[in-house]
Write a structure and sequence with these properties.
The protein has 57 residues and is mainly alpha-helical. It has one helix and no strands. Keywords: Membrane, Transmembrane, Transmembrane helix.
Length: 57
């Protein structure tokens, strides 16, 4: 039975795709947050000179 045109087949695709996009958004936000700590670790920081690209994008 379709309620407002939403069938079971739609639900089987919509829920996993929604979860994927929410997860991707959260992962992108975490990567963006972690860029503020880029090359600042005492253990992994190394010697980065001015103008050199960061060690990871």
């Amino acid at each position: 039975m379709a309620i407002f045109g939403i069938t079971g087949r739609f639900i089987y695709f919509a829920i996993p795709l929604t979860g994927f996009f929410i997860g991707k958004f959260l992962d992108d936000q975490e990567t963006l947050r972690m860029t503020s700590f880029r090359d600042k670790s005492c253990l992994y920081g190394g010697n980065v000179k001015e103008g050199d690209p960061p060690s990871w994008p």
